[in-house]
Amino acid sequence: MSAVLTLLPLSAILTLLVGLLAVVYAAFTSWDALVDGPAATKEDYAPVVLVTAAAIILYYIFLFNQSRTTFAEFDAAKKAYRAKKTDAKPSITEIKYGGDNARVRAANRGAGNFAEQLPPFLVGLYLYSSYVSVGGAAKLGWLWLIFRSYYVPAFHRGIPTLFLSTMPAYNVVWWMIGVSVYEVSMKG
């Protein structure tokens, strides 16, 4: 049964990856039409809407990976228990929330960290596209997504490798917000 439970979130991840590729294709086939300056119409926001859609898709990929990893680790723990390699009967609750499984912890932190960083990123993205440059916001948004996409493998490797995902992403957000605040302060 748990093998089937592992396949359900995996199928969602694969489906979401197809959706992500479609959004990336849409974004990069319209790359030449990026507005160089602040958005003047709602249509000007189209490139950042695509970045936003990609960010939400990536968020759900992290969430489904969290479930997939928990189910896979639960299945492995049950097999070890049946083979008498461990005396403790596995509990999915203990695996998901117990904190002693490195793969589950990495998947949990991947989803959690992405959820923590998404609000300031979206604020920065829309501020930058409203006050500085839509094209610049879209480019910075894609860059942020690239940095966030490899958080889980970077988490497995630990510090300082983890900083290769987090620090550049933080800098993108700080840049978008800082330049936007500067632009607003210079106009007012």
What does this structure look like?
Helix 4 (102-131) runs antiparallel to helix 5. It is built from seven helices and no strands. The model has no long low-confidence stretch (mean pLDDT 92). The chain has 188 residues and is mostly helical.
**Mean model confidence by pLDDT:** 92
* Quantity of strands, as a count: 0
| Assembly form of the protein | single chain
Q: Roughly how many Å is the radius of gyration?
A: 20 Å
Number of H- or I-type helical stretches: 7
In short:
Helices cover 79% and strands 0% of the residues. With 188 residues, it is an all-alpha fold.
Topology of helices and strands:
Layout: H1 2-29, H2 46-82, H3 92-97, H4 102-131, H5 134-149, H6 151-157, H7 163-187
Q: What would the keywords be for this entry?
A:
188 residues, mainly alpha, single chain
